[in-house]
Amino acid sequence: MASSPTSEPRPARPDRGPRSRDERVPASPHLYRPVLAAFLVATAALLIAAAFVPAPLTARADLGDVPNPVKAAWFLVWIQEVVSYAVEAIYLVGFAALAVLLLPYLDRAPHAPAARWFSPERRPLHVIGLTLVLAVLAWTVIGLFFRGPDWQLVPSF
Question: CA-based Rg of the chain, rounded to a whole angstrom?
Answer without folding.
Answer: 23
